[in-house]
Amino acid sequence: MAIRKKTSKRKTTKTAQAKPLTRTETYRALADKTDLSRKDVVAVCDALTDVMVKSVKRHGSYNFLGLMKMTLVKKPAVRGGKMVRNPFTGDMVKQKPKPASRTIRVRPLKAVKDLL
């Protein structure tokens, strides 16, 4: 009777492949593709983030290399006390007041749509 050794073969599951890359994995992949050190890739990404934020704050939009467009959306304040219908229960409830806010909307551009 022969004794079998257990071999550790990792099975890749679909859930592991379906997850998007983390920030660290993205830095590592960029470093491998560009032959730069990971530290240099992190510095470039941080600089790019600073440029994007400054552009959106100053001009209200930023076109990211022809792939996506980031635009600043200003939402006005909402006064409370108005009776509105709750879409889940159908009951009439008082609307809560909300302060004004600013958010970012990201739209894919034609280059991304053509790639997909």
Could you describe the 3D structure shown?
By secondary structure, the chain is α+β, with helices and mostly antiparallel strands. Among the domains are: 21-59; 73-110, no CATH class. The chain contains 4 helices and 5 strands; from the N terminus they run αααβββββα. Strand 1 and strand 2 form a beta hairpin. The chain is elongated, with a radius of gyration of 24 Å. The model has no long low-confidence stretch (mean pLDDT 87).
Q: What sequence of helices (H) and strands (E) makes up the elements?
A: HHHEEEEEH
How many E strands?
Answer: 5
Mean pLDDT score: 87
Tell me the structural class.
alpha+beta
Percent of sequence in beta strands = 15-25%
Backbone CA Rg: 24 Å
Low-confidence parts, pLDDT < 50 over ≥5 residues? none
What is the share of helical residues?
25-40%
Count of alpha/pi helices: 4
Assign an overall shape. elongated
Question: How many angstroms separate the termini?
Answer: 55 Å
Largest sheet: 3 strands, antiparallel
How is the largest sheet built, in terms of strand order? 1-2-5
